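cache lookup: miss for this entity combination. No prior model stored, computing from scratch. Input as submitted by user K.M.:
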Amino acid sequence: MGRKTKKFILLAPVLLIIGILSFINFPKDPDPFPSDEQVIERITSFFSEIRPKIIQDRIFLDDRHVFVPFISEDDGYGMSFWVWKNNEWIAASVSGGGQPMVWNGGEEAVIMWNLNPKDEVGEISIFVKKERDFMVSGELATYQPRMGMMHRIPLEGKMYGAESFPDHWQELIKQYGEIQSSDGQNEFLGLEGGLQVVASFHDAKGKETFPHISFTGNSYSTGDEFVEAVIQVHENELEGKY
Amino acid sequence: MLNFEKYSHAPSLIVTASGYILIGIVFVSIYRKKTDSPKIWKAFVATIIGSFAFHFTINLAGKDISIPIFPIGVALLSLFLGMRGNLARWQQFRRFAWFGFLANLIFFAFLLLAIPLDGIMYPKDVPSTYMMNVKKATLIATHPNAKELTLNQAKLEKMLDTMTQKRLDSESWYYRILEADGHKEKFPYVLAGTVPAKGGGLKVIIFIEEDGKGVLITPNKGRQVYFRLKESIFNGGVADNG
C-alpha cells in the first residue's frame, strides 16, 4: 500500500462523518428576526398576491413565534405569522386581511388581529363556546352543558395587536384537551371539536358592527396549521346576555 | 395487550408486574424439574425467542387487546435446534420455547384482570375517584346565566363523601332548557383545579349545577356520572328555587 492509499483510508471515514453531519440539521437557537426588507421580500416571493409595504410591528409570542402585522401596497392591512422551524424563520401563514386568528401551540393561546381602520372597530369581543348536546343510547346517557364565555379587547385606536386568552380559558382548553381520549368514547360524551373560538365587533359607540374590509383578502399558509382563523358571530346568535 | 398508552396506569402496572413474577416462578420450576436442562441462560434465551408470536388484535370495550395466535419463535427454534436430525437438542429446549409462547397467554389473561382491578381501585360511582384532592378547587362561570358566586371549598371537601349518584337524565335536561325562556343552562359552572385519584389515568371536567348541589363529571374514559349533594357548595347558600 502506498502512502497515498493509507492517507486516503484514514481520511475517508473522517470525510464521511463530516459529510453526514453537514446534512443533519441540528436545532439551533433562533437567529435574529429578519429585517423589514427581508420580511417583505420573503412574503412577496412566496405569496405573490400579497405585497407588504410597511411592517407595522413584530410581536414575539415566544422566542420562536412572531406575529408581524403589515400594511400592503394597496393600503390593505395584513398579517403574517412567523415560525422558527428547521433553523430558519419561515412565514407560516400570511393573510391579506386582518381577520383575527388564534395560535394555540404555545403555553397560552394567543389571539392576533390587524383590523382595517376603515372598519371603525372600537372593541373586539372574543368568545369560547361549546354547544349544548345530549345523547341517550340504551343505558348510556351523556350531557354536554352549553358553554359561552366572553373576553373584551378594547382597541383604543391601535388596530393591530396580540393578546393571550384569560387564565381560566386556558384552564378549560387544557381540560378539554386532556379528556380527549383515543378509545372511541368521545362521541358518546359529546366532546368532539373541543371548544370553539368566535369573535364579535363593536364600533366606538358600542354598536355591533361587521369589519367587512378586514375580513376580505386571501390568506395562505405553508401547510402546517399553526394558526386558525376566528369567525365572526352575531351576538343575537349567542345564548344569554353578556 | 391492553392499550393504556400515555397514562401511567397503576392497575396495568400491577398486573404486568404480577405476570412477570408468575412467569419467573414457573420458569424456575420448569427448569428444576428435569435434570437434563441446559444452562440457565440458554433456557432463558429459548423462552424469550419462544415468546415471539403472531398477535391478533381485537377491540374489547374500546380497548385494543392482542391475543397471541401463532408461535413463530417456537417454530424457528425447532427448525434451527432440530436441524441435521439433532432432535435431542431440540427436546432439551422445547419446553422452554413453548413456555415462552405460553407466557404471552399469561400476560393476556393478567391484562384482562386489569379491567376489574381498575374498577376496584378506582370505583366509578365514588366522587373522590374523580376529585381526590379539592384543596385548590376554583369555580369558573362558563355560561352568561351563571351568577357571580364563589366556591365554599371547605364545604365541598366536607360534602365529598355524602354525594349520591343520580340518574343522568340528559334528554329531559336538554329539552327542559330549550322549552324554558332564556335558555338557562343547568350546569353553568366548571370546577377547576381538582386532582383525580392518582395512578388511574383519569382526567375529568367537572360541571356544577346552578344550585350548587349537583356535580356532572365528564371523564376521559368510562362514563359520565352525576352526583347530587344535600347542601350547596357555593358561598352564602344559594336560594332553593334554583
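stored under new cache key. Helices of chain B lie at 10-33, 40-50, 72-81, 87-121, 127-130, 153-159, 170-179.
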